[in-house]
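hiii, so i know i said id send this last week but things got crazy w the move. better late than never?? heres the sequnce for the chain we talked about at the cafe, plus the structure i predicted for it. fair warning i was half asleep when i ran it
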Amino acid sequence: MKKPKMKLGEVDFILFATILMLVTVGVVMVYSASSYFAAFRYEDPEYFLWRQLFAACVGMVAMFFTLNTDYHKLKKYTRILIIFTFIALCLVFVFPPVNGAQRWIKLGPLSFQPSELTKYVVVLYVAKSIEAKGERIKLFIKGVIPHLAFAGFFAGMVILEKNLSIATVIMLVTVAMLFIGGTKFSYIAEMGLGLLGLVGLAIWFEPYRMKRITGFLDPWSDSQVTGYQLVQSLLALGSGGLTGVGIGQSRQKCFYIPEPHNDFIFSVIGEELGFIGCMFIVVLFIIFLWRGIMAASKAKDVYGALLATGITAVVILQSLINIAVVTGSMPVTGVPLPFISYGGTSLSINMMFVGILLNITRQNNS
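okay and structure toks below
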């Protein structure tokens, strides 16, 4: 007998509108932040604009597809996605490094960054596995360790690509999902301490990471080398004042902030749109967090609740890290601002997976 098609309710309009606003602001600010750099590097001030617009269109199609597809069907494809992700993470080492990191698969004019998919594939697996384990998730050996081992394996592969920040996001999101899934708080505390120790070791054994720590502690003592990015970012934020110098009028984007359309785009937003513009972005992410928590709390099954938790945690953790770096609240690390920083892989994959989050809200409202 054919299974009846699941009836979907109304999409969470607040969440949907928030995502669209973030993407729209991102496309506009990528153009504003990159035009000067692109004009000199590629003799085309719109070079990055058209690429970001293309990624946004691809992401929009992907988001509408996942928005209208029952998220439970993802369980069937999780294993295939894990295999694909593993192969993609291995393939990056075939290509030459960029700025000392091997994170991209390049096919002609197109490039793909597997770590952007990895964090969400880990979410899919952990959500499926926790639901299957049921009450056993409360056991440390049989419940917690397998998930940490799985996430740790993929996080380790990402670290080999010289991407500690995304690896840390993967582990933090896994811990958050374990907690929501029913793991004891004492285990969570132990995992937190262990994760902190591992991050410390990863920093200690890489000289460039240690330099970032010293640059963070006193960026002005070496403002031309280790503290350069942070100093230029703070100058941009400070010169923006309350209302900013006006969109397109940033001075720091003129070869002071390296590639200002990427990880430090928030500082250009602060310079051009001021404190008000920065707070607008922060409020949008707060609304995203609120609606994500609502989606998880109202989910009709454990799998949906964990998926909503994981997807929301990925976006919010990355936004927190990015804004903290730009404002000098933590050491410089390469984490893009979700939906806003330039990057086709990041934007399209983020939009595809927030489509899953929107699908969960539709089923909650059915």
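btw The chain is about 70% helix and 0% strand. thought thatd interest u
miss u guys!!
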